[in-house]
Amino acid sequence: MSARAVEALRAGVKALSSNRKRALEVLRLATDDDAGMADAWLARIAAGDQSVSTLAGLSAAAARLEHDLRTMGYRAQDLDVAFDVGYVRWLVADQTSARLAYAARLLTVREFAQTNNLLEGLGCTDRRVLYTRAQLMNDTQRWPDLLSAVAGCEAWQGLDSEILRRAASLLEAKAAANLGLFDRAVGAVGRATESALPNGDAIMRDGLHLRALIARCQGDEDTARQTLADVVARWPEYQLAKDALADPTYSLHIVDHASIESRSDRWDPATGTTPAQRQAAEHASAARQQLAEAEKTLSKMVALDEVKRQVATLKASTAARILRQRKGIPTPSTSNHMLMVGPPGVGKTETARAVAKIFCGLGILPLADVYETSKDRLAGQYVGQIETQTREFLADALGGTVFFDEFGELIHGGYAGGDPVGQAIIGVLVPWMENNRDKAVVIAAGYPRACQRVLESNRGLQGRFSTVIEFTSYPPDKLIEIAEAIIEHNHSTVEAGALHEVLMAPFTGFYTEQHHTEDGDTIRTIDVLNNGRFVRNIVEAAERVRDLRVMSESGLDGSDLSDENINVDISVEKLVLLTREDVSTGLQQALPPGLRA
Predict the structure, then answer these.
(1) Transmembrane ranges (predicted)?
(2) What are residue 407's DSSP bridge partners?
(3) How many CA atoms lie within 13 A of 22 on its CB side?
(4) What is the H or E stretch that residue 528 is in?
(5) Would strands 370-373 and 82-85 be described as parallel, antiparallel, or unpaired?
(6) Are residues 168 and 161 in contact, defined by beta-carbon separation less than 8 angstroms?
(7) DSSP states of 430-484
(8) Which helix (H) or strand (E) holds 494?
(9) Backbone angles phi, psi at 520, to 5 degrees
(10) Tell me, what's the pLDDT at 501?
(11) By the 8 A CB rule, do 301 and 347 touch?
(12) What does CATH list as the number for 284-470?
């Protein structure tokens, strides 16, 4: 502090009543000479300098408030510097109010982060600080934080306690109402609108307006309009009430905690997301995951290049149809039901699961679930029971994908008047497929000509399946590839050349041997053995043979394996290697007795 700054303060305060412009010029000399002279900053504000920087100077120097004014016979409140925080006006009279004046100025210029930092430095015991924090949260629509700031405000005591209690109660009511907590909001409005003033004030006016909007949200339009009319009559220039009275859709914007916490900018309500937006984002994320999982499933499947191409075409066609619809291009609706024709064990079920995920990922279906069934699973003791079981099964599958295996077995000949079980199932299935074509997908699987026979048995079933994906028996080289893939997946290894030496000849025989069904379908012996599933059975049997051999050779039969030091010298290679003999024995164990050597 310098003598020159003190003299400048003295001269500036003296000039406030006669020449404010001159006072401001002199007072600037004081703050330039001594930036910590709080009283000079306060006097500058009294002279009309309401700049943010001047309020910031006062706040920074607040600890010295009245230090110099007292030597001149003044108090801070004698300069009559007032500031507004919402409904409340205070004089700068102490350190806290000096800093709150800066907070109020920051609020008006929407520097909310700075306001928050300043208030956090002032603690949370002074009611004026709590109310100012509540106003910050009101201006930024952080309703839960507002409720925390004014908790217990109905019991606030002290200077200007009545107006502060009412103002805080009104802010509480606004926060509670915008969170949909109407009972709490109504109680707080009641406290806010209690006033001894004969004509009311802004708190009463806004409180009654809020009460009307709460009534509207609760479906009580008569009370809402009556209250709004009363507000307009008492305060004819209050535009918000006039707008709400003229527009019955004018209402509160109810938000939830999650929407507020979702903001990318804590202080900007526009950066938050709505529940619908979050749900859409979750759906989009889940859709991406479903598509990725479908691609992963298909990529791991061996010897199905043509099937993968057909699925890729299906996916592209479906996506293109969706895009055309979004562009407003007339797009005829199409059925998504499909046939997967081919022998067992060639990946139809896994492909169906991948297709279900694709449909879910593209938004065609809400669920990626696959509901598997067959004629045997739906059959009952009498026709009525079959129909009931079929309806119940299909009802559970709504929104997902039905995988109907062995579809070609649905209708058998030899019955007078037709197959009653199959016809009962079809009688329920056909209308369900048509009525729910946009809510579910049916994938029917079986031998091609057998499936065609079933389709021809019911004219309503014809044309229901818009896509046909063809599967074929695995030739010997592809069966070997599948064996290699399974061995790798199981973290096993196999002696070089063992698979070809042991399996190629029998696989060739199984592939070549064939017969024809009454429907005309070609059935190879490898189909009877279930193609890929047969290969998996061979590998798993070979691994069991290997494990028995390794345990026996290592002398571990009957040993206590809880001792971690037993035979630690067994190599990893020995534990995972499949020999020619293992594979040969595994083949024999996997074969039905009638086909074993």
Answers:
(1) none
(2) none
(3) 9
(4) helix 525-528
(5) unpaired
(6) no
(7) HHHHHHTTTT-EEEEEE-HHHHHHHHHT-TTTTT---EEEE--PPPHHHHHHHHH
(8) strand 493-494
(9) 100, 5
(10) 97
(11) yes
(12) 3.40.50.300
Band of residue 512 on the pLDDT scale cut at 50, 70, 90: very high
Q: For residue 565, what are its two tokens?
A: 């030091």
Q: Is 103 exposed, middle or buried (0-12, 13-18, 19+ CB in 10 A)?
A: buried
Q: Tell me the C-alpha distance between 586 and 597, whole Å.
A: 12
> Can you read off the two tokens belonging to residue 415?
């019955």
Q: Cα 467 to chain center, whole Å?
A: 33
Q: How far is 48 from 28, CA to CA, in rounded Å?
A: 12
* Per-residue DSSP letter, 93: -
Residue type, 315: K
Q: How many CA atoms lie within 13 A of 407 on its CB side?
A: 31
User: Encoding tokens for residue 583?
Assistant: 């594979």
Q: Which two tokens stand for residue 519?
A: 């429907």
Alpha helices in 160-304 (DSSP H): 161-178, 182-192, 202-217, 221-234, 239-246, 257-261, 275-300
Domain-by-domain residue ranges, the chain? 284-470, 476-595
In tens, the pLDDT along 8-32 reads 889 999 999 899 999 899 999 999 9
How buried is residue 32: exposed, middle or buried, by Cβ count under 10 Å (0-12/13-18/19+)? exposed
